[in-house]
Amino acid sequence: MTEEKKDQAPAPKAPKPKIPRQAMPEQNAKKRAKNFEQVTTGYTEEQAQLEASRCLACKKPSCVAGCPVSVPINVFIKAIAEKDYAKAVAAIKTTNLLPAVCGRVCPQEEQCEKVCVLTKKQESVAIGRLERFVADWEAKQGESPLPPKPKKTGKKVAVVGSGPGGLICAGYLIQAGHDVTIFEALHKAGGVLVYGIPEFRLPKAIVQREVEYLQRLGCELKCDFIVGKTRTIGELMEKDGYDAVYLGVGAGLPWFMDVPGENLNGVYSANEYLTRNNLMKAFEFPNADTPIKRHKNVAVVGGGNVAMDSVRTALRLGADNAYIVYRRGMEELPARKEEVEHAQHEGVQFKILTAPVKVIGNKEGWVEGLECLEMELGEPDASGRRRPIPKEGSNFVLEIDAVIPAIGTSANPLLAQTTPDMQFSRKGYIVVESEKTGRTTKKGVFAGGDIVTGAATVILAAGAGRAAGMAIDQYLKDGVWWDPNAPKPVEAAPSAK
User: Fold this and answer.
1) Contact 439/239 with Cβ under 8 angstroms?
2) Concatenated DSSP letters for 142-171?
3) Which CATH architecture is the domain 156-252+411-478 placed in?
4) Chain segment 322-347, per-residue pLDDT in tens
5) CA–CA separation, 295 vs 264, rounded Å?
6) Crossing angle for the helix pair 305-316 and 337-346, to the nearest 10 degrees
7) Residue 389 pairs with which residues in a beta bridge?
8) Is the Cα dihedral 65, 147, 162, 169 positive or negative?
9) Hey, what CATH class is 254-409 in?
10) Which candidate, 435, 445, 430, 441, places its Cα nearest to that of 475?
11) Sheet holding 179-183, edge to edge
12) What are the start-end ranges of the H helices in 304-429?
């Protein structure tokens, strides 16, 4: 080789071509607005490969830190790129036993995807869609393989509530060698995953598959069992011999609007409306036992994901007009952007900057209208969103035959009424030492999710369940508890320099 060639610098590598974020295939909007089949149909293998190739394989992946359950995102995406889908599923399940659920309903755009390094110059990697892809791939392979059976500890844990937090907590504890029983108040396990989220967003067969996986791991499931009525927490521990209890009961007590006419026929809480359709399959009546009136003009009050689920359900039940009545603007809607866009494409009409003031009824006691008031936005309030201010004299009537308030929920008072030796907040939520441990003021009892924080997301509940599972495991090993009455340490003031 000549000296001249030795001195030549290597040719620069061609820049990696920018691959656009892969869109999720979905049903035609007009067609899907009339059925309860999944709106999005999932990535093909080719799309998943392209999307996985966009990942930069960061040495310090910020996406993992952005995930409430710390899924090793970089590992599972690399496995997808290598076409090792079994490895990808196994990586996810080291921290999250519900990938098919979380890949569909978690707000990744506000968590892992929000901190993806790619967002500095382009769209983030579609982490949630890739998670769904590998979970769906696993389902097509048949029954999921089970991990090796752990050595039994002889300890018993009661998990109250079979929503995402309860399922994740139970999965962690059964794999730690403890005996676990899940208690569910309804006749079917899954919590909000089965009663709250419509079939077109989350097919119930997926939830059932995840529950059956836990049962195969060794978890016992008892449905139609209301803790606080069938058995109190104290009785579970003192009479039934449970060494620890996890409370993942959610916060399902619906709020109403507190306006005249709210007791008219045709006013439903979002909880009732969705539960009748999702859990009890009213949309299949008469093939299912539960009927529901199919209204023609429906107003859903609220702007969150529950409101979007309710209004899109009304469309599928045959409504000619389905409205979202929301007192702020489109920018302030708390629902996921994707769900809002799907609703718009399907024909939902948005009455923004509008607040209900009265439900109007006919002589037979049925809803025939909703009197509303126009609003304008003022300065931001405690939520950080601009405060809605009424415009005097702007009243108008929306002609409807059903109203569904979807404005929030709070804690059911049953546990507070039957567990006097455990502390609850003024609003009825369970007081815990820390969300990192979930330890309550009653020894051996842990709590997490909406019953602690108020209504939040599936993945945050799952994160709370996982954190509590780890804390319960540690408690069962060392028996150490905290003293709720001990003064909290005070940080020393910085010394003057």
Assistant:
1) no
2) SSPPPPPPPPP---EEEEE--SHHHHHHHH
3) 3-Layer(bba) Sandwich (3.50)
4) 999 999 999 999 999 999 999 999 99
5) 14
6) 20
7) 376
8) negative
9) alpha beta
10) 445
11) 220-222, 179-183, 156-160, 244-247, 445-447
12) 305-316, 337-346, 414-418
- CATH superfamily name and code, 19-140: Alpha-helical ferredoxin (1.10.1060.10)
With 0-12 / 13-18 / 19 or more C-beta atoms within 10 angstroms meaning exposed / middle / buried, residue 382 is: exposed
The pLDDT of residue 496: 36
What is residue 284's predicted lDDT score, i.e. its pLDDT?
Answer: 92
**Mind listing the pLDDT tens digit for each residue in 463-476?**
999 999 999 999 99
pLDDT of residue 384: 83
User: In the prediction, which pLDDT does 10 show?
Assistant: 55
Give the start-to-end residue ranges of the domains of the chain: 19-140, 156-252+411-478, 254-409
Residue 16 has a pLDDT of 53
Q: Do domains 156-252+411-478 and 254-409 have the same CATH topology?
A: yes
pLDDT less than 50: residues of the chain: 1-6, 14-15, 489-497
pTM of this structure: 0.91
CA distance 436 to 65: 15
Sheet of 321-325, strands arranged across: 349-351, 321-325, 297-301, 402-405
| CA distances (Å), origin 424, targets 50, 276, 390, 411 | 49, 30, 35, 10
Under 8 Å between Cβ of 269 and 211 = no
Dist. CA 53–CA 51, nearest whole Å:
5
d(CA 440, CA 430): 7
User: How high is the pLDDT of residue 90?
Assistant: 94
